[in-house]
Amino acid sequence: MDKTTKQNALNAHNWVGVFLSVLLFLVCLSGTVAVFHLEFERWEQPHIQEMDNVSPQVIEKAMDTFLAQNPEESHHLYVVFPTSDIPRLVVENDHKAYFADQEGNLLEEESVSFTQMLVDLHLYLNLPQSWGMILVSALGAIICTLVITGIIAHKRMSKDAFKLRRGGNGQQAQIDLHNRFGLWAAPFHLMIGITGAYFGMAGIILVTVATLNYNGDRDAVVNQIFTPDPVLAPQEGKPAIGKAFAQMETLAPEKSPIFLTVHEVGEPEQFIEIYAKAPNRMIYAEGYRFDTAGNFVGVAGYEFGEWGKQLVWAMYRLHFGDFAGMTSKWLYFVLGVMLTMLCVSGMEVWLSKKAHPPLASRLWYSVVWGSVSALALTAIADMFISGSLIAVFWCVMAVNTVLTVVFKRMTKPVWLLISGFSVLLLLTLYVVVHGEASLNVASLQLNIPMLAYVVWSVLRANTLLKREGMQNDINLQPSSPARETTA
User: Fold this and answer.
1) Does 343 map to a domain?
2) What is the pLDDT of residue 431?
3) Domain count, the chain
């Protein structure tokens, strides 16, 4: 490509990245952490009994007890099996969810407020869902734009693929790091951008396809992707969920049941559907359908459906890395960190070219490291209050901004230290609140990485503070005679 095209791509890359840097960073950071949203659900209530499997009789008992205690009207009933990615038994309706033990006795109500806030931050930026998701999806398209313009603008891609220069004022190293992360993980970043854009644009795509191919009939398009409900004789009576679940060992012995749904509870069209994870397939699950009496009706047909249907049903696992256990989740976490650091390094390169304007630089670091502190303090608040966690998070972010404007010492290493000590405070209070349960697998699988972050943040902040001190000493040294003469 000619120089003009490359320069135009670079200009577009710079200005799009700068103007949307804060939103892109928050979406990328929350998405990176939300890769472990199922683990965070376990972490929030670590004392709940966990198990590998459950019998049909236990499921029946747990649901019967739940319905007796929660008789309110609901269109759906759900059972989350311990064979899912959360090794716990959960029974719920449209309003409440309760854990159950291995005997089918109810334990306590499910409470995942922090996890929900985190996921909502990633999906909607905590905005109203209707247009929050559209905004976040637009940011997914922006990520694709940044990846493509970054590749076009790269002048010596093949020569600089493994170059990482050190020394000087650090600006060149920052540029190299930004380019390497952008180049090496470009396929992942594009995939995240495309799948992220899909979630918010699905409604627009639905309307467009319906208008062009189905005379505006949206239901016809939906039925092409989501298999219509089975046509059954009028149903009545209590759904035989235990009988339906017992048949899965025969119907799909190679699959892991994830959860069960009773659709249209109490209505003539009531039916049971069990979703099971298909091995070696990227689709979210195959659906096995039963009538109210527990008789097998058929499968939804997602596993071997048309490629378009399979692609749509693979979007969730592709976006969140939920397809190869903890291996894929940790891979997505590392790649997500790279994408998040692209936002950080890109803004730092821009700030360095502007000679690091003090207030703008401090504000940026208050967003980057202050958001980590805000998440930690929000998780702490969740352990002691029952109010809105969204309000807590954004109030902390607002306080961070005020502190940054008022105090000139709120620089990058200071914010890094604050983030580390905030996470340390979270871990300390977590141990106080949960006691022995803070040492089980549900807790340690997240507490150990968080402790590692504390250690890294303190060490890194200490290095930056020393570097700042050395730079201040250099600036305070008197000019040499030769320099004064030249001046």
Assistant:
1) no
2) 98
3) 1
| Tens-digit pLDDT profile for residues 428-464 | 999 999 999 999 999 999 999 999 999 999 999 999 8
In the chain, the percentage of residues whose pLDDT exceeds 70 is 92
pLDDT recorded at residue 417: 96
Let me know if residue 162 belongs to a domain: no
3-state secondary structure the chain: CCHHHHHHHHHHHHHHHHHCHHHHHHHHHHHHHHCCHHHHHHHHCCCCCCCCCCCHHHHHHHHHHHHHHCCCCCCEEEEECCCCCCCCEEEEECCCEEEECCCCCEEEECCCHHHHHHHHHHHHCCCCHHHHHHHHHHHHHHHHHHHHHHHHHCCCCCCCCCCCCCCCCCHHHHHHHHHHHHHHCHHHHHHHHHHHHHHHHHHHHHHHHHHHHCCCCHHHHHHHHCCCCCCCCCCCCCCCHHHHHHCHHHHCCCCEEEEEEEECCCCCCCEEEEEEECCCCCCCCEEEEECCCCCEEEECCCCCCCHHHHHHCCHHHHHHCCCEHHHHHHHHHHHHHHHHHHHHHHHHHHHHHCCCCHHHHHHHHHHHHHHHHHHHHHHHHHHHCCCCHHHHHHHHHHHHHHHHHHCCCCCHHHHHHHHHHHHHHHHHHHHHHHHHHHHCHHHHHHHHHHHHHHHHHHHHHHHHHHHHHHHHHHHHCCCCHHHHHHC
Model confidence pLDDT, tens digit, residues 21-30: 999 999 999 9
Q: Domain range spanning residue 379?
A: 357-468
Asked if the structure places residue 381 within a domain, the reply is: yes
Asked if residue 164 has pLDDT above 70, the reply is no
Within a domain: 224: no
